[in-house]
Amino acid sequence: DPEEWILKKVKFGKSFELLANQLRESIDASSRGRAAAELGSTKNNAVLAPLKEAAMTDPSWIVRAKALEALGEVGTEEALTSILSLGIPENRRVRRALARALANFKDRGGYKLLAELLLADESPYVQCEAAISLGKAQADGALQLLKKAMKINSPNFTLTEACLGAAGYIKEEEVRTLIMENLRYGAPSRARTGAMKGIINRGFAYEDEVAALKEILLRDKEFRVRYYVADQVAPRLAERRMLEELKRASVSDRDTRVRRRALEVYYELLRTAETISSIAKLGEEVEGLKKENRELRERLSRLDRPRDS
After folding, report:
1. What percent of the chain has pLDDT over 90?
2. Which CATH fold would you assign to the domain 9-139?
3. CB-based contacts of 309: which residues, under 8 Å, 6+ apart?
4. 233 with 200: CB under 8 angstroms?
5. Is the Cβ–Cβ distance between 164 and 150 less than 8 Å?
């Protein structure tokens, strides 16, 4: 099936030599792209040469992008050296792959290139990817770079959204203030969504953030923001502190889409809470059985002791 017309899933192992040959010789771009991805998954420096060659010379931007991402997957110092030696690609899609690959390295050279892509690239998509990678890499000075980039004009505040989402990966107290400032009504809708993405990327919400999210879900004027709380924030954080508000929104929201999603998430979280409660109860029962078992062994031990005559 060289044209990939048949819907299928095929997985089988190939040697380095076969994959390198596939990357170099296959006439089909998707086949070469798969070879690049598989080479990267080996995380072995032996694959650097064919991947670097593909990133430089392959006629398809898709394969060049896959090769760069694969170099990022390898994740070694030598892989980073290979990436940096390639310079900045001309194709914006390949530059986006470059930004994505650099998230895997904690090195000043990689940070410097990400900062350049974030602040100076002509494509907002590349800038957004660079922002996310800076956050994931937790680069030195990343938060200040993200705050600076938030002020750059971008279509529909997409870069602001990406910067706020990326800030969630950074473990600094200032991030909490930044998120709260952009959750409020009056901030651009995409900035508010970005603040919620930041909370999701952090992995948990503080009490004041939960209170703000509850208020948004029940009373905010913007449908998109209310829906994002119900559709993404509550389920992805498994935020059981919002159960009551989800139930109320499922009845009172003026938009049927919010009502339906709030009800779905309410029952999802309710089942999760019941499961956790059952597990906790089971744990208590197990501990009770262990205690009874210890007491029984102690009684048997006393019975087995020889009595003084």
Report:
1. 80
2. Leucine-rich Repeat Variant (1.25.10)
3. none
4. yes
5. yes
258 alpha-carbon distance from chain centroid: 24
3-state DSSP call for residue 88? coil
Q: Give every CB contact of residue 182 below 8 A, 6+ residues apart in sequence.
A: 164, 191, 192, 194, 195
pLDDT at site 4: 74
pLDDT for 100-141, tens place per residue? Answer: 999 999 988 999 999 999 999 999 999 999 999 999 999 889
Q: Is 29 in contact with 62 (CB distance < 8 Å)?
A: yes
Contact predicate 32/6, CB 8 Å: no
Structure tokens at 62: 């898709």
Q: Where are the domains of the chain?
A: 9-139
Helix boundaries (H) for the chain:
16-25, 29-41, 48-57, 61-74, 77-85, 92-101, 108-120, 124-137, 142-149, 158-167, 173-183, 189-202, 207-219, 223-228, 234-236, 243-252, 256-304
Phi and psi at 185, nearest 5°, equal -65, 135
pLDDT for 7: 85
Note the pLDDT tens digit of each residue in 49-71. Answer: 999 999 999 999 999 999 999 99
Query: In the prediction, which pLDDT does 306 show?
Result: 66
